[in-house]
Design goal:
Length: about 190
């Protein structure tokens, strides 16, 4: 029996070794497959994280550019407001200048020419002496303290009126003027 036992033992040992070799091969294949899957998952995660990082970076850059553009627009708006305020201040200083009587007469002539039958002219009381020659007794001169920088021509019966004041003209022309000022300031 010892020979038979030895043969059986050898065959069992060979079978065990074959099964172990097969199991090791399968385990190695499974390990390689698992490693490959893990590497693919890691690579996929890395690409996804890189894409997310790049997207976040682009969003941050866009937000920064938007903030910068907004700050520039606000600064330009403030600068244009400052220019407008200085222009208004210069206009308000005009009545103290020697050319003011001629300016107020021209404003009155423009307003009167817009009415078919003017009967009165209103302006600040300080401006009325400059308008007497224009009125020549044909037009009534009316004091209006609110019209320091302009005049109002009043039509027959008071139904129509045309106001011609520097502040109003600046307001009406400001959009066009501000774009020209912006062109001069910022090209």
């Amino acid at each position: 029996m010892s020979k038979l036992e030895a043969i059986l033992s050898q065959e069992v040992e060979a079978e065990i070794q074959a099964l172990l070799a097969e199991a090791r091969g399968k385990a190695e294949a499974l390990r390689r497959e698992a490693e490959a899957k893990a590497m693919a998952l890691l690579e996929g995660r890395r690409r996804a994280l890189e894409a997310a990082f790049q997207a976040a970076l682009r969003r941050a850059e866009s937000a920064g550019e938007l903030l910068l553009a907004t700050a520039r627009a606000e600064a330009r708006g403030e600068m244009l407001n400052e220019v407008k305020a200085r222009v208004l201040a210069a206009l308000r200083d005009l009545p103290s200048r020697p050319e003011w009587p001629e300016v107020v007469r021209k404003l009155a002539e423009e307003a009167l020419s817009a009415l078919p039958e003017p009967e009165a002219l209103a302006s600040h009381p300080e401006n009325l002496p400059h308008l007497e020659a224009l009125a020549q007794g044909k037009l009534e001169l009316k004091p209006d303290p609110a019209l320091r920088l302009g005049v109002r021509a009043i039509g027959k019966g008071g139904r129509t009126q045309v106001e011609n004041a520097l502040e109003g003209r600046l307001e009406r022309a400001w959009d066009a003027l501000s774009s020209r000022v912006a062109q001069v300031l910022w090209g």
